[in-house]
Amino acid sequence: MTSPTTVTGPAAAAGHHERIARLRAAATRIRRHALDMGEVQGQGYIGQALGVADVLAVFYARGDGELRLRPDDPHWDGRDRFLLSIGHYAIALYAALAEAGTIPVTELATYGSDDSRLPMSGMASYTPGMEISGGSLGHGLGVACGMGLGLRHRGNPARVVNLLSDGELDEGSTWEAAMACAHHGLDNVIAVVDVNGLQADGPTAGVLRTEPVTEKWRAFGWNAERVDGNDVAALVDALDRIRDHTGGPSVLICDTRVGRGVGFLETREKAHFMPVAAHEWQAAREQLEGPAR
Question: Which ranges carry the Transketolase N-terminal domain (predicted)?
Answer without folding.
Answer: 26-288
